[in-house]
Amino acid sequence: MVRVARAMRCRIRVEGIVQGVGFRPFVYALAHRYGLAGAVGNDSAGVLVEVEGPAAAVAEFRSALVRQAPPLAVIDRVSTSVLPPRGEAGFTIAASQAGGARQTLVSPDVATCEDCLRELFDPGDRRYRYPFVNCTNCGPRYTIIRDLPYDRAATTMADFTMCPDCAEEYADPADRRFHAQPVCCPACGPSLRLTGRDGGPADVDTDPLRATAELLRAGLVVAVKGLGGYHLAADAASETAVTALRTRKHREEKPFAVMAPDLAAARELARIGEEEARLLGSPSRPIVLVRRHPTAPLASGVAPGNRYVGLMLPYTPLHHLLAAEFGRAFVLTSGNVSDEPIAYQDAEAASRLAGIADAFLVHDRPIHTRVDDSVVRVFAGSPLPVRRSRGYAPQPIRLPRPADRPVLGCGAELKSTFCLARGGYAFVSPHIGDLENYETLRSYAEGIAHLGRLLEIEPRIVAYDLHPEYLSTKYALDLPDVELVGVQHHHAHIASCLADNGESGPVIGVAFDGLGYGTDDTIWGGEFLVADLLEATRFGCFAPVPMPGGTAAIRQPWRMAAAYLRAAYPEGVPDGLAVVGRHAGLWEQVLTVADSGLNSPLTSSAGRLFDAVAALVGVRDEISYEGQAAIELEQLADPSATDGYRARFAESPGERFQVTGADLVRAAADDVLAEIPVATVAARFHRGVAAAVVDGATRVREATGLATVALSGGVFQNVLLLEPTMAALQRRGFAVLTHHQVPPNDGGISLGQAAVAAARQHR
Ligand code: ZN
Ligand code: ZN
Ligand code: FE
Question: Three-class SS of residue 639?
Fold first, then answer.
């Protein structure tokens, strides 16, 4: 007698963000694999599946549905109900049901998948060596989407009509290109072209990729049109090429990113741990900051004064082909002059980069939205984002408290982003850049309008920084008919860290950064707060010192050394310090300015304290990019040193305590005079700041009973500070929150603002 397995029919509802991520084709393929009948469709809440077949197969299907879901899906809830079997055969994909408040998702761009890569290098495949191969699981997304609904007509692929072969793949639910909007091939899709500096055809070999590799080998600089903008490429091993690139770009010291052909090649350049390797190969393919080998074949100009190098692996088919042709690492840095936003439109790129690039490798698929490469480093085995952009944005982040009314967080000024939030999700924009000029402000305002339209979020509540001069603040205050919520900068940092970890607080918030506007109209940046998503109270801070000359003191760290040294030695600064000698002509004058209070605001900024020590030990008197002095101080410090300086704590009338940062400067100056090696001084200083964090947190715990510390602010990008701080806090029994999804720097501020504005709706 034949036993027939008992048939079962289930209705499975998957809620969350499961539309526009290839979920229905995935369900279709899964049902086929388990031999189940039924249908998949979607409605306003998510995806609805009905499956029928042997009970065991249905159960396995149900579990694989969650375990193997497409990487971009965000599943909130899965509910299952049992229905009477219908004896149905076959599985179908039902048409979408319109209507309702659909939770839409705009996918980030995804690096070329393994399947597409195999085709790319398979001489028998019709897409062999085709630089625009993609599928449902990979390819351009956010950068090419003009409007919704997300289908080809609303992308920059609209002008490329699918050939019959591509159209067949697109329409076949069993094909891995089913509904892949940017699907194309050599017969119907975009094409590549190499042009000379003037836009005319290049006088070279006919294959543009081979020719580009040839130019790179000859030491020339080639502009390469990528996914979210133009890059500049040069041979990473060539001193001449890298120097030429630096000079023409007017980028004096900021490190260049390097693209290695594959992981094996990357390992020849740098020490790559398990998590670093995972990130390098992940679908987001960020630039990963890794420790370079001292003998790595990289020109000295790639990352001057830096023990680390930013590496990435190819993330588009074009990169894969170019890397294969060139065969070794090349610099791939954003196509711009110094601090301008990256060029992304063809005509604009041709004129702006004409003075930098010797040739242009271009194609005819327009880029709709500019997106920079993301940057990440690894801390304690987890990613610590430095810049969240391509491959990540605008992937949603869950909010600890939902935004019942839609929210916009406007961000700060430097490393600016914005954040749109509705319901349980926050969507942080890609990195926009420093909001200091009209061009960036325009792309910021356009970005808010564009992403708002795509996500169907029209903000009713707008959260902004308290700094009256930030363009993001002015933008917020000019918006008509919205409810405004001012969020103090360092509260936003801590709220960002809370949201990043799915927490609501209250916590001990330690926010260390360059500067942020305080509630007392002074400049903060070395703050111990007691904070939750609703409010923050200042509990302690670094004792304020003047910033002689205001912004001049940010550009010239030696001015901070002058202010701090005087505070450190009330009896008079000892003779023999080189930093005083280097600026003898201006030293007294700068201190007089500081005394007059004229254009010399007081600041508790931890970033400025790092600047002072960097100048004191001779690392850097003047900077050419934000945070440079502190970054170089970290790079130079001896990581094996274990002893540190100690700062005293003073009672203060306003807050509960002030940390005497000048004690750390005095200890460092004494060591410098005693000719202790600079690497040791820098390490002892880092340890001293870590100890101050622990002592401060302990005081807050004694007063409040709170035992969780959230570490945020750009200073905590510094792994040499973060590492001992976290270890010591944990030894003393604290739970520690750090950043994993958004950067601790001001790129994370917009998320914090949105999280605060969302939480306050529940008050
Ligand atoms: Zn693919
Ligand atoms: Zn085609
Ligand atoms: Fe900040």
Answer: coil
Q: pLDDT per residue over 531-582, tens digit each?
A: 999 999 999 999 999 999 999 999 999 999 999 999 999 999 999 999 999 9
How many CA atoms does the CB half-sphere of 571 hold within 13 Å?
Answer: 3
Separation between Cα atoms, residue 552 and residue 563, nearest integer Å = 13
Q: Are 329 and 265 in contact (CB under 8 A)?
A: yes
Cα(331) to ligand 1 centroid in Å equals: 25
**How do residues 513-536 score in pLDDT, each as one tens digit?**
999 999 988 899 999 999 999 999
CA neighbor of 424 nearest in space, from 400, 448, 407: 400
pLDDT at 92: 87
Q: Which ligand is nearest to the CA of 744?
A: 3
- Model pLDDT, residue 625: 85
Measure 137 CA to ligand 1 centroid, in angstroms.
5
Alpha carbon 113 to chain centroid distance? 22
Q: How many CB atoms lie within 10 A of CB 201?
A: 10
pLDDT tens-digit profile of 594-644? 888 888 999 999 999 999 999 999 999 999 888 899 999 999 999 888 899
Whole-angstrom Cα Rg for the chain: 28
Classified as helix, coil or strand, 452 is helix
Q: Which ligand is nearest to the CA of 494?
A: 3
Q: Which pLDDT value is given to residue 1?
A: 47
DSSP 548: T
**CA 748–ligand 3 middle distance (angstroms):** 9
> From residue 173, how far is each of 22, 107, 170, 177, 178 by CA, in Å?
11, 20, 8, 8, 5
Measured in residues, the chain has a length of: 763
What is the CA(187)–ligand 2 centre distance, in A? 5
Say what the pLDDT of residue 343 is: 86
Closest CA to 226 of 135, 120, 323, 339: 323
Query: What is residue 547's predicted lDDT score, i.e. its pLDDT?
Result: 95
CA of residue 320 to ligand 2 center, whole Å: 20
Distance CA 379, CA 275 (A): 9
How far apart are alpha carbons 701 and 508 in whole angstroms?
8
Cα–Cα nearest to 724, from 662, 650, 637, 648? 637
Nearest-angstrom CA–CA distance, 246 and 253: 8
User: How far apart are the C-alpha atoms of 253 and 235, rounded to whole Å?
Assistant: 18
What is the predicted pLDDT for the residue at 103? 59
Listed residues: CB within 5 A of ion ligand 3:
513, 516, 746
Amino acid at 713: G
pLDDT given at position 4:
57
Closest CA to 375 of 388, 364, 362, 363: 388
Span from the CA of 662 to the centroid of ligand 3 (angstroms): 22
CA atoms within 13 A on the CB side of 554: 15
How remote is the CA of residue 30 from the centroid of ligand 3, in Å?
46
What residues of the chain score a pLDDT lower than 70?
1-5, 19-20, 44-45, 95-104, 199-205, 338-339, 654
